[in-house]
């Protein structure tokens, strides 16, 4: 699964990287320990171009009776997107990019679990493939939520965990966002394990396991 990540780069870099036409973020600050049920930056395509806004992490399908379901839908397996009612229609109609510059995963060891931070070797920004939906409560209040798609691990991740987030190659991001693209088969082909040679992983403090900890010290490597 993908349960924690980081987004610490400046807002200006996101705007340039994703060719943002409209920025709807009310505020933006580095987040060293992004956790489920938080509002996170996300990119979708509107009629006039790419929009940057916020989605709550943990998908609440539009047909759900209550929003509590979101806590159990932070990830969606790429292999079963066309089989699950919550994701089937979203794959062809409501796709998003979730910017990140690293993510955390825990490796099981004899003495317990060791967290790792996984990043690109160049330290740059990358994009999780996501799906989003809009839910309304009985009073008509709307809630926009998302899920991060996961796939099989590449050779780097296989030594840490059995899954990894589906990271889109930069040349595939526009295709993933394209509003007119509704071919599920070709979209699924984009959700491949990212090239391991372009990534690196390093151990970090177990403090990252506590969602209340959110400082740049969490990014530091430990022995």
TrEMBL record:
Cross-referenced Pfam families: SRAP
Keywords assigned: Covalent protein-DNA linkage, DNA damage, DNA-binding, Hydrolase, Lyase, Protease
Enzyme class at the top of the EC tree: hydrolase
Signal peptide (residue range): none
Enzyme nomenclature, EC number: 3.4.-.-
Gene3D superfamilies registered for this protein in UniProt: SOS response associated peptidase-like (3.90.1680.10)
InterPro entries assigned to the protein according to its UniProt record, in alphabetical order: SRAP (IPR003738), SRAP-like (IPR036590)
UniProt similarity note: Belongs to the SOS response-associated peptidase family.
The protein's name in its UniProt record: Abasic site processing protein
Organism (species): Paenibacillus rhizolycopersici
Upper lineage: Bacteria, Bacillati, Bacillota, Bacilli, Bacillales
